Amino acid sequence: MSVAEATLPALVLGLLLVITAGILLASTYGLFPGTPIFFVFAYLVCAQVPAPVDEMLPRLLVAVTSAALAWLLTMSGWAFRRLVGDRSGDLFKELPRTPLLRPAAFRDVQAWLTILQHQVGVLLAGGLALFVSIGHPYRAVVSVVAVLPPPRAAHSISRAVHRIIGTALGVAVTALVLLPGPSVWVLIAVIAIGQFGAEILIGRHYGAALLFVTPLALTVAHLADPVAVPTLLVDRVVETALGGVVAVLIVLAARGPARQHSRRLGGKRPPLNA
User: pTM for the whole thing?
Assistant: First the structure.
């Protein structure tokens, strides 16, 4: 998209396709998280950065190399398990021996309802962000996808509250880092610390994790495309609040039909591959 300098309608169509494929893939292969957040984030970040044709191959090689390095680091635990054997004790949790496959996920009505909710949400948030001329409209879209629940998950607004409050506090932390105008090496250290904290906390408390995720994301954005720090910080808060509010409205709208469906089933959820 970025190489072809795609028009806005083409970008939107691509986003809707990414959401659909991402949710179906997550539901089929039991991916975590069960939402298309990483697919959407990667698509939007790449699409909004211009890529000259002569730079396409080097950028692709960097992406592939980075992905390969990440995979090797992830699989290093497998090698360590083989080395320590039973001496690992409680260091590792038990891993499933076979992948969790749900081949009938594409026939699941709940998966398609989730896709519809995500598509409506990103269109509303993205359209409003463009209307008010926010600096980075894609962040409002990402906020919606980060908050909306995956198929068959409880429809709760707590995640939206965590995201808005956590982002606001994370912006305050980022201000303490960026406003003094630190050196590049300090920013790289902040990115490393932010990544570590995010990985440790993201599965435990979403709001707390955003205290690290927000400085991480904004510091990377500032390094890649330096802008006035106050503008960067204000835009982040506004974009996150906009996306969070849109997600809350969709969650509340879907909560009633979800409860009625649950009552009709007697409180039981049908199997995904039924």
Answer: 0.79
